[in-house]
TrEMBL record:
UniProt entry keywords in alphabetical sequence: Metal-binding, Oxidoreductase, Zinc
Family: Belongs to the MsrB Met sulfoxide reductase family.
InterPro entries (UniProt xref): Met_Sox_Rdtase_MsrB, Met_Sox_Rdtase_MsrB_dom, Mss4-like_sf
Gene3D superfamilies: Peptide methionine sulfoxide reductase
Catalytic reaction equation(s): L-methionyl-[protein] + [thioredoxin]-disulfide + H2O = L-methionyl-(R)-S-oxide-[protein] + [thioredoxin]-dithiol
SUPFAM superfamilies per the UniProt record, alphabetical: Mss4-like
UniProt-recorded name of the protein: peptide-methionine (R)-S-oxide reductase
Length: 143
């Protein structure tokens, strides 16, 4: 797994570099806009305090306090960290959805829907394979 924002800016890595850095499943999801099978992520049950980061570049994306059980089979959050994600229109699979990317490396994370809980009403439905988890106290510097 890549170190957060290590070396050359991740968005300019070659596809060969991405393939060498990521597992085949991470590559399929993060770089080819794939979707992992529902219910397969170990992060579904993750409830410890901490930060969910991009599995591609290590950028912090979500904190545990914004995670909720959506019943969809994918880790879901009602709010990302400020500036951590970007969105685009996804017209694949004969529908229009809002795709969510890591703002730093542009890796595909999942989609956002407007059926989430308060306070935002949003559901960031993320592929667990596109995320890593850093328990509180394990952050760089022991914060």
């Amino acid at each position: 797994m890549a170190e957060p924002n290590a070396g050359t800016a991740p968005e300019i890595r070659s596809e060969r570099d991405w393939r060498e850095t990521l597992t085949p499943e991470q590559y399929r999801v993060l770089r080819e806009h794939g979707t992992e099978r529902a219910g397969t992520s170990c992060l579904l049950a993750e409830k410890r305090p901490g930060t969910f980061t991009c599995a591609g570049c290590g950028t912090p994306l979500f904190v545990t306090g914004t995670k909720f059980e959506s019943g969809t089979g994918w880790p879901s959050f009602f709010e990302p960290l400020e500036g951590a994600v970007e969105t685009t229109v996804d017209r694949s699979h004969w529908m229009v959805r809002t795709e969510v990317h890591c703002a730093h490396c542009k890796g595909h994370l999942g989609h956002v829907f407007d059926d989430g809980p308060p306070p935002t009403g949003l559901r960031y439905c993320m592929n667990g394979v596109s995320l890593a988890f850093e328990p509180k106290g394990n952050e760089p510097g022991g914060v």
